Amino acid sequence: EAKGSGRGRYMAYEPHMDTRREEKNQLEADLKYAIENDEIKVVFQPVVNTLTRRITGVEALARWNRAGYGPISPDIFIPAAESSGLIDQLGLSVLRKACHEAAEWSAVKLAVNISPVQFRNPGFAAQVMSILAENDIPPSRVMLEMTEGYFIHHPERAGTAIEKLKQIGVSIALDDFGSGFASIGYLRRFGFNRMKIDKSLVVALDEGGRSLEMLTATVALARSLGIPVTAEGIETEDQAAILQLCGCDELQGYLFSRPVPAEEIAQLLDAQDAPVEQRRVS
Ligand code: C2E
Ligand code: MG
Ligand code: MG
Ligand code: MG
After folding, report:
1. Is 0.95 topped by the overall pTM?
2. Residue limits of the EAL domain (predicted)?
């Protein structure tokens, strides 16, 4: 305890530190309870083909409505799960729910975010494989999305973990490209099957500068390596048009749909599969 005016400590005692620690502990305790009581929900955001605008896949996103607080952003609770040892359970539960829903939908691809912290578990690939099998989802339908952090710090271990996942037949995407330090070289080195352009690069387009040139060059490089590109955070037709010109083959963002519950995905898929005649009258 840092009480007693910080004797022999580097940091002086500040009352707010205890408060913050208590809040963190409470958050983790609530999260643990929520995971164990099946209170983490999954929503799905469509990913569309740039040219046809048809839904080609969906991305599963975790949601937590914390009792007494309301919705907590995954940007808060995923890191909390990672640092408190809850991520393995949370991650598998999201994958299980996502597969369960996706089993009801025609062939659209299913993307699920995974935390590189889950790579620490040597049985991870085997667990993924059995969840897919339980739900009759062919691995070729599934893409696991991961961000770069771990790759920079533990390239060897990341490489091994990814190799195992690719062996079971799922594909892997480098998520949030452009938000950190990952380079195009990573795509090749780890055998990523897809690059996802972070929404910050899309937003930057509106701010001018050299954003357009950067984006164009990035997409061109990925594509020259044979790696298809999805752009995230598309909110306007202008952005969609620019990313189409850049050569992105898939787009995702509020312009097409917000993340929605599974039932709404089913309706969206039904609507796009209905004959055009029927679509007009209904
Ligand atoms: P992500 O994987 O990059 O997911 C895209 C995020 O952008 C989602 O935020 C989505 O709701 C948001 N988004 C989509 N379209 C738009 C748009 O047009 N404009 C804006 N402003 N935002 C848009 P969300 O759901 O809050 O998730 C945040 C991050 O949390 C995710 O980023 C992902 O890294 C992480 N995450 C979410 N669910 C999981 C999960 O089950 N496991 C793991 N490990 N991470 C997850
Ligand atoms: Mg993602
Ligand atoms: Mg992303
Ligand atoms: Mg993200």
Report:
1. no
2. 24-273
Q: What's the 74 CA to ligand 1 centre distance in angstroms? A: 7
Which ligand number lies closest to the CA of residue 178? 3
ipTM above 0.90, yes or no: yes
pLDDT in single tens digits along all 282 residues of the chain: 344 444 555 666 667 778 889 999 999 999 999 999 999 999 999 999 999 999 999 999 999 999 999 999 999 999 999 999 999 999 999 999 999 999 999 889 999 999 989 988 999 999 999 999 999 999 999 999 999 877 778 888 889 999 999 999 999 999 999 888 778 888 888 999 999 999 999 999 988 888 899 899 999 999 999 999 999 999 999 999 999 999 999 999 999 999 999 999 999 999 998 876 665 554
Structure tokens that stand for 4 in this block: 């007693």
Number of residues that this document lists for the chain: 282
| CA nearest ligand 1 atom 34, residue | 113
From the number of C-beta atoms within 10 Å of its C-beta (0-12, 13-18, 19+), residue 41 rates as: middle
The residues with which 197 forms a beta bridge, in sequence order, are 177, 231
Write down the number of H helices and E strands in the chain.
12, 9
